[in-house]
Amino acid sequence: MDRLGVPELLIILLILPFFAAITIIPLWQICKKAGFSPALGLLGIIPVVHIGLLFFLAFAEWPAMKELLESRRKS
Known about the structure:
By secondary structure, the chain is mostly helical. The chain has one domain. Helix content is 69%, strand content 0%. The protein is elongated and about 65 Å long. The protein starts with 5 loop residues before the first helix and ends with a helix.
């Protein structure tokens, strides 16, 4: 009773890509809009690393914001 059967494994294999997609897609868009490489969003599927990515996005100076502030100063 301590092993997973075929039905349980199939359910896991069907659910895991769904959870990966709902993590990667928003992080991909956030990184892109912030001015970072969108590929950073792929780090969202690595346990513990995704927490570091969230802290990085929260506290880093975004290139997109830098460009916006510079363009407003020139106007």
